[in-house]
Design goal:
The protein is α/β, with parallel strands linked by helices. The protein has 16 helices and eight strands. It binds zinc ion.
Length: 410
C-alpha cells in the first residue's frame, strides 16, 4: 500500500505571500525544525532568484555536513529551460526540484494569452525536466498549476508525459482552493490508476478546506495505487487564505475517524517540537497564532463552560481528541519579569556573554567570542528582531554558514 510523505512549502509558498516574509536566517531555522519534525522534503526557495543564492548554497552545505539530514531540500522553478539553466548556474549543487507550469485552459488563455497550446505546455515541461536531469538533478517533481480547474483527460495526458520523461511526482495544485474533499479524492484516484505516477497534493484554503482536500486527495492517490505527497506550511501560512496547515494535516491523518486506521500517518514524524516550531514561526513571521488554531492555539485545550470543564477534568477524552503533551505543550513557561538582557546590533561583549552564558554555550577564547558577537550583531540587523535561542545557537555552531546566509550583495 502507498505511503504518505510531507513536502513542506513554507519557505516558498509561505514567504511569497503578500505582506509576509522571512529573513534568510529565519528560513534556515524553519528548515532545521522541519528536519527535526521528520518532514520528507522542504521546498526551500527559488534557485533562480539572486538574493536567495547564498542562503540556498549555505543550506545545501548544511546537508553535506549532515546537519540537515535526512530531509531533502528542493527548489521551485518554472518548468522552462531558462530557469533550469539559471538554477544550476546559481546553485550548482542543487539535486531536487519541483518545476511548475499552468495546465488549465483558463490560465493558458488568461495568463499566457493563448501563446501556448496544450501540446506546447507538455513540450516545455518535458524539455525542462530533461535538461534538469542532464544537469545533475536527482529527483524532479512536475507541478500542474491550477490542476483542480484543468480538464481531467488533459491532466492525465500531462502526468503520463511527465512520467515518460522521468519525473518522480506530479503535483496536483489546487491553486485557488476550489476543490472539495470528494472531488479531489475521485480525481486523484483516477489519475493514479491511469498513470501510476506518485502524486502530490497542493491545496489552498480559500474555501476553508485545504486540510480536508489534502488528506482526501492523498487517500485517492493511495487508493489508486501510488504514494501520496502532501504540501503543507507551518501555521497554514500561505497565499491569500493560506495553505494546508502542517499540524492540521498530521492530526487529521492520525485522529480523524475515517483515516486513523488507514496507516496514512507518515513514518518518522515526531510532533513533540511542533508547539515550539509554531511559536517560532509566528514570531519570525510577525503573525500571531489564532486562539482557535488547531493544536497550537491558546484555546486548543482550554475549557470554561461548566459541563466541558467538569467533563475534561473527569476524563480528558470527554472533550479532548488528542493530548497536548504529544504536541510538546504542558510545560509552564517562565517569562522574565525583571531585568532582561537581549542581544542586538548594538550589543557589547558583557551583555552578549550574559545571554550566551544562560544558553550554556562557551567559547574557546576571547577571539572566538568576539567573532560570534560580530555575527550576532549582523544577524540582528538582518532579522530586525531580538534573536531567539535557536538563532543564537545556530550562529555559535555554524558561524561560517550563518555568515553566508546573511550575506546579500545587490
Ligand atoms: Zn500554492
Amino acid at each position: 500500500m502507498g505511503k504518505v510523505y510531507l513536502i513542506d512549502v513554507t519557505n516558498r509558498d509561505g514567504v511569497q505571500t503578500s505582506r509576509i516574509g522571512l529573513a534568510k536566517l529565519e528560513k534556515t531555522i524553519v528548515n532545521m525544525y522541519l528536519n527535526d519534525l521528520g518532514v520528507y522534503q522542504s521546498e526551500f526557495g527559488f534557485p533562480f532568484t539572486t538574493h536567495e543564492v547564498n542562503y540556498l548554497n549555505a543550506n545545501l552545505e548544511l546537508v553535506e555536513m549532515g546537519v540537515i539530514k535526512p530531509m531533502k531540500l528542493e527548489g521551485w522553478i518554472r518548468a522552462i529551460t531558462k530557469d533550469v539553466e539559471t538554477a544550476f548556474k546559481f546553485v550548482p549543487k542543487i539535486k531536487h526540484f519541483n518545476m511548475s507550469i499552468s495546465t488549465s485552459d483558463l490560465m493558458l488563455e488568461a495568463k499566457f494569452g493563448g501563446k501556448f497550446s496544450r501540446k506546447d505546455i507538455i513540450k516545455n515541461m518535458q524539455d525542462a525536466v530533461k535538461l534538469g536531469y542532464e544537469k545533475g538533478a536527482e529527483t524532479i517533481g512536475v507541478n500542474a498549476e491550477d490542476a483542480s480547474r484543468t480538464d481531467l483527460n488533459y491532466l492525465i495526458e500531462f502526468a503520463q508525459a511527465a512520467k515518460e520523461i522521468g519525473a518522480k511526482r506530479v503535483r496536483y495544485c489546487d491553486t485557488l482552493g476550489a476543490d472539495d474533499p470528494q472531488t479531489i479524492y475521485e480525481r486523484l484516484k483516477t489519475i493514479a490508476q491511469k498513470t501510476k505516477i506518485d502524486l502530490e497534493m497542493h491545496c489552498h484554503n480559500d474555501l476553508g478546506m485545504a486540510v480536508a482536500c489534502s488528506v482526501m486527495g492523498a487517500k485517492g492517490a493511495i487508493d489508486g495505487g501510488v504514494d501520496a505527497y502532501i504540501n503543507t506550511t507551518i501555521n497554514g501560512i500561505g497565499e491569500r487564505a493560506g495553505n494546508a496547515d502542517l499540524l492540521g494535516v498530521l492530526l487529521a491523518l492520525k485522529y480523524s475517524s475515517g483515516l486513523k486506521d488507514k496507516k496514512m500517518f507518515p513514518e518518522n514524524i515526531t510532533l513533540s517540537k511542533i508547539w515550539e516550531f509554531a511559536k517560532y514561526a509566528s514570531y519570525a513571521f510577525g503573525i500571531p497564532i489564532p486562539v482557535n488554531q488547531v493544536g497550537v492555539g491558546d484555546n486548543a485545550f482550554a475549557h470554561e463552560s461548566g459541563i466541558h470543564a467538569d467533563g475534561a477534568l473527569k476524563n480528558r477524552r470527554n472533550y479532548e481528541l488528542y493530548d497536548y503533551e504529544e504536541l510538546g505543550r504542558g510545560e509552564t513557561e517562565l517569562v522574565e519579569s525583571g531585568r532582561m538582557i537581549t542581544v542586538g546590533e548594538y550589543s557589547g561583549i558583557k551583555g552578549f556573554a550574559n545571554v550566551y552564558g544562560k544558553l550554556e554555550i562557551e567559547f574557546k577564547n576571547d577571539k572566538e567570542a568576539a567573532e560570534i558577537l560580530e555575527l550576532v550583531r549582523y544577524a540582528n540587523v538582518h532579522t530586525q528582531k531580538p534573536l531567539t535561542k535557536n538563532e543564537l545557537f545556530f550562529i555559535a555552531r555554524y558561524p561560517k554558514q550563518a555568515r553566508q546566509i546573511m550575506t546579500v550583495s545587490p
